[in-house]
Design a protein that fits this description.
single chain, transmembrane, 83% helix, mainly alpha, transmembrane helix, elongated, 3 helices
Length: 151
Amino acid sequence: MNENVAPSTPLILSENSISYLNTTRKWAKFLSILGFVFTGLFLLIAIGLIFGGLFVGSIDESPFPLVLLGLIYFVMSGVYLIPIWYLFKFSKNLEKMYLYRDNFLVEEAFRYQMAFYRFIGIFTIVILAIYLVLIIIGLLAGFGYFMSQLS
């Protein structure tokens, strides 16, 4: 955000709208801080799994290596951090808007809200596509197993 931009027009929102946005800001801030905390816990778990897998991996031959599980948690933490950051920036811009009553800050807040929902939407599409591929693979594997049992 460019801090040097002067407000071009006064904020054009009703007091009820400003009150609703202020309440939304509080919840968005709470949820984003909670998201940061849980992302931090995910990172700690990832680090523990990676180091645990490095030290225990030579002793215990588990079917799913702890290092790989730790790397998955690490990547998941990075992915979760993106929408949490957008939500946090949304709340911070609404907080400034509530103090300064500036249209530019409302636009910035809504830009981060749009980015949040766009990311969640794309992420949901990707996850649904992965599920679809896994279901197809599972059906084909089941069909192949069924056909092998017939002969």
